[in-house]
Amino acid sequence: MDFDFNLILVPVTLIFFIVWLLDKLVWKQRQAKGKGNENVIITWAYDFWPVLAVVLVLRSFLYEPFNIPSDSMVPTLETGDFILVNKFEYGVRLPIVNKKIIDVSEPERGDVIVFRYPPQPSISYIKRVIGLPGDHIVYDHGQLSINGKKVPKVPVEFSRAKDIQDTPESIYHKETLGEHTFTMRELEGVNIARQAPFLNYIDNGKYSNENGLYWEVKVPAGHYFAMGDNRDQSADSRFWGFVPEENLTGRAFYKWMHKEPGFKLPSFSRNGKID
Predict the structure, then answer these.
(1) How far is CA 33 from CA 19, 50, 165, 208, in A?
(2) Which residues are catalytic?
(3) What is the per-residue pLDDT across 154-184, written as a single tens digit (0 to 9) for each?
(4) pLDDT digits (tens, 9 = 90+) for 7-32
(5) Among 213, 198, 216, 214, CA closest to 135
(6) Segment holding 155, helix H or strand E
(7) HSE on the CB side for 193, CA within 13 Å?
(8) What pTM, to 2 d.p., does this model score?
């Protein structure tokens, strides 16, 4: 998710609106010549700006579609899934600049969020909220704890139509964070935290030790700690740090289509709510 369509939609909508307004108030070509006989740009302005304005409002303030480009959220989300993101749940924000103008609510533990990637805000990322502002997160040999309480984690059997990199073997668990219970995937014999720069090289309050099998962080005010459900194949907060509140885009809540690469028809078998 590496392109903000609003970078095109906003200026095009604004240009067409200005042309429409100028013709209404100054040029008056449509009034004088009749519909279809005015300059072609003016025709386009009358035809397209209302539609573009509706699309802009829907995408910027209500719901925006995104495509999943990687397997970092497997098994919750697969590469090729198309999702809808609630844009107003975490506050109404202006398009492009992403400045919040109306407070609504804040993310909760377990929410799947879309946000602007902190090191490169032009890119959108999707991960799950693990830690809220002020949380003390501890990872101890596979067990997450938040503020001294262990995150419930239960082994489960899980099969996928097409698995990825099952050597080493995939291990699945059910985790519960807040109101969300979801399936999390790990790879036996792999622990990417040992390679995570944020945990290993940045003074975040407690350095990772025991080769990444133990680490802890304290989430600062106005920030969130996020991880992918595909724990050993996700470049997330363990690598680049916390997600600032101002980088939030919205909450992913629904899968509405899946499309494999190439000339393949879309599938709707994965449609459903995102836990």
Answers:
(1) 16, 21, 65, 73
(2) 72, 127
(3) 999 876 655 454 456 899 999 999 999 999 9
(4) 889 999 999 999 999 999 999 999 99
(5) 216
(6) strand 153-156
(7) 27
(8) 0.88
